[in-house]
Amino acid sequence: MDAEAARPARLELAGETDADLLGYMGMAREDPAGARAAWEEFYRRHRRYLHAVCLRAYGPLLGGEAGACDLVAETFRRAYEHAGTFDAAGLTGRDRLRRRARAWLGRIAQRLAQTALRNRGRLPPAALPPEQWQQLAEPAEAAPESPQLVGRVRGALEALSDREQTVLRVTMQWYQPDRAHQRLPNDVAAELAETLGTTPENLRQIRRRALRKVEAALRAGQEPTERSCQ
Are 113 and 153 within one domain? Predict the structure, then answer.
């Protein structure tokens, strides 16, 4: 397809929701050209966002910019291959579907990063089992983040030592809010401890100390609340 013929298709797809694009991508066998065009539009919309997320969350763990770029590329490849598993959960509206799609992409990247950490920084070549893809979408209606809070959290994290930041970044890849007493998988803890020249037991102390520092920094940055006269 030449450039002149492709331009109208791109303009038409620009008006589609992310759920529609993923739907077209899921029909790659029936319409390979249409699926590819939908993927290109989907990639154009979300590549900057996903790159920023992957670089900030996983770059230090995967070798920096190059590792983050590899993770982004592999995430979009998996998204194309498994587009048919995306669940819009009955949502409508471009903004809500965009948040849903980005949460889905984020979970793909997280699963890939977890596997890469187990494989000493190498992204896995094999696709995840299809049944896992049904569970990738995160709730779309999370409370919006406050820019002020995000800035305070980022500042608190950047004030930590490199070792503390690494421990928090790795442990957060396995964090699940609905589960108590969470621990890193034994093989990941052993690998991280070896990398940092410490022991798996000491990792928990480093994590606990780092979280206390973050909590203290956030409390120190809180604005005072108004008190009414008695």
Answer: no
| Domain of residue 151, residue span | 147-220
Tell me which of 66, 98, 133 is where a domain ends: 133
114 lies in the same domain as 22: yes
- The DSSP line for the chain is --HHHHHHHHHHHTTS-HHHHHHHHTTTTT-HHHHHHHHHHHHHHHHHHHHHHHHHHHGGGTTSHHHHHHHHHHHHHHHHHTGGG---TT--SHHHHHHHHHHHHHHHHHHHHHHHHHTTTPPPSSPPPHHHHTT-PPPS-PPPPPHHHHHHHHHHHHTS-HHHHHHHHHHHTT--TT-SS----HHHHHHHHHHHTS-HHHHHHHHHHHHHHHHHHHHHTPPPPP----
Residue-wise pLDDT tens digits, 88-141? 988 889 999 999 999 999 999 988 988 887 776 566 554 445 444 444 444 444
Same-domain status, 151 and 123:
no
What's the pLDDT score for residue 176? 61
The pLDDT tens digits of the residues spanning 46-76 come to 999 999 988 888 887 788 888 889 999 999 9
Amino acid in position 178: D
Nearest of 204, 207, 218, 215 to residue 164 by alpha carbon: 207
**What pTM value is reported for the model?**
0.63
